[in-house]
Write a structure and sequence with these properties.
This protein is mostly helical. The chain contains 15 helices and eleven strands. The chain is globular, with a radius of gyration of 26 Å. It starts with 12 loop residues before the first helix and ends with a strand.
Length: 425
């Protein structure tokens, strides 16, 4: 058992965090007491302590978010950092990020959370309720929602009250609130609903089955790529622009890539998969092939020019098609940007004369990490997985206190095909 002695008043924030980590590590190894009553009491005590730690965590996240520190470590956004480095699920990521960003606008919530007088669930609910409100309305909403908390309403009920407050304010300002959720439908058939707003806009929501989703991705994904380094639109804005282009007749070609064996197309039962790894039944793959046509993809020299050497700077369409089957997402291990939205990267740098435009010297990286790799080459560790695909890993910035790269070869270079990357504390 590790002994932990800390002078709470004299200890630095880092020392307190280290002490909490040591205590948590020891507590995680302990067996639960035999007494159920004791477990109930300990659960409530520990949960309250965890809620107070969430207050500190929100403060840390806000500082990282406000200064953009995560970008120095190779993450394009705070959300990407929370998902990748902390392993948070999307819902928890959104919840914590909203609380961190709204904390300074909710002084009473922040004070009560830090004092252990308000649970994290209530604090996150209030923060989410006021996220879209102006500062003048935020203070009044905070008072009202905390009043409901003090009356003993559950967090779910407080969330309902929060949505109602937003609706009332939207009506007061002459704005239409976002339509409520539709009733649940099945997943076999695709469906889309649209609702007009008072200003002439339109809300769209729906569900696409795997077959229709493949057509959606094949049509919109190529059009939704960033137009260049000055394109600051997010993925949602680019997708909307791509959809508008298709609906206005500005795009006529649909590309759907389905990866399967020849036997699947000729009546076999082996499932196929999309470029993002989604499996689809053999019958569905055949239906897509009938409507979209079949183009054989040769993973080698064959009849498809995949080895262009130094005479070509940019990858060909055939090379990109191969890469999209190999890289469902950005080659950076921590990044989740779909490969269809990524850029082709010369692994060792075409301009440096180290990486010809050959299929086995290329990978897919999102626009952000492509630029990060070339501006901070010593913060990218490159290796190959057992299948021969490149894996990029983010390394700490120089002088940072974190884990260190112990793969063979320095960061920014690759080892032999069987190289595996290791991390050590």
């Amino acid at each position: 058992m590790q002994s932990v002695t800390v002078d709470l008043e004299a200890a630095s924030t880092a020392q307190l965090v280290d002490a909490v980590s040591a205590i948590a590590a020891e507590l995680a190894q302990r067996q639960a007491p035999e007494s159920a009553a004791a477990c109930l009491e300990l659960t409530e005590t520990l949960a309250a302590a965890c809620d107070m730690q969430e207050s500190a965590l929100a403060g840390f996240i806000r500082r990282v978010d406000a200064t953009g520190e995560q970008k120095r470590w190779g993450f394009p956004s705070t959300r990407a950092w929370l998902r990748s480095r902390l392993g948070m699920r999307e819902n928890r990521t959104t919840e914590r990020l909203i609380l961190a960003r709204q904390r300074h606008r909710l002084p009473r919530v922040a004070e009560r959370l830090a004092a252990g007088e308000l649970s994290y669930g209530y604090a996150a609910t209030v923060a989410q309720s006021v996220a879209r409100l102006e500062d003048t309305d935020c203070a009044g909403a905070e008072t009202t929602l905390l009043g409901f908390v003090d009356q003993g309403f559950s967090a779910a009920k407080v969330a309902v009250f929060g949505r109602r407050i937003c609706d009332v304010i939207a009506e007061r300002d002459g704005k239409e609130a976002v339509p409520g959720e539709d009733v649940k439908r099945g997943y076999a058939k695709s469906w889309i609903t649209s609702t007009g707003s008072l200003d002439g806009g339109r809300y769209i929501k729906g569900w696409l089955n795997a077959e229709d989703a493949a057509i959606w991705d094949g049509t919109l994904a190529p059009l939704a790529k960033p137009a260049g380094p000055d394109d600051h639109r997010d993925a949602g804005e680019r997708t909307a622009a791509a959809l508008s282009s298709v609906l206005s007749g500005g795009h006529k070609t649909t590309k759907v890539t389905v990866i399967c064996d020849l036997e699947t197309l000729t009546g076999g039962n082996a499932p196929a998969r999309l470029t993002d790894g989604t499996p689809i039944p053999a019958a569905q793959a055949r239906r897509i092939a009938l409507s979209a046509g079949v183009s054989p993809l040769l993973l080698g020299r064959g009849h498809t020019p995949l080895y262009l050497g130094y005479r070509e700077r940019f990858a060909s369409a055939a090379q990109r098609q191969v890469l999209e089957t190999q890289y469902p997402t950005c080659a950076v291990r921590e990044c989740e940007i779909p490969g269809t939205l990524c850029e082709v990267d010369h692994v060792n740098g075409w301009a440096l004369g180290n990486s010809p435009t050959d299929i086995d010297q290329l990978a897919l990286t999102c626009g952000w990490h492509n630029r990060f790799k070339h501006t901070s080459p010593h913060q990218i560790g490159i290796s190959k997985d057992p299948d021969g695909q490149y894996v990029y890993r983010l390394l700490p910035p120089p002088g940072a206190r974190s884990r260190t790269w112990t793969g063979s070869g320095p960061p920014g270079t690759i080892g032999p095909p069987d190289t595996t990357a290791n991390w050590a504390a």
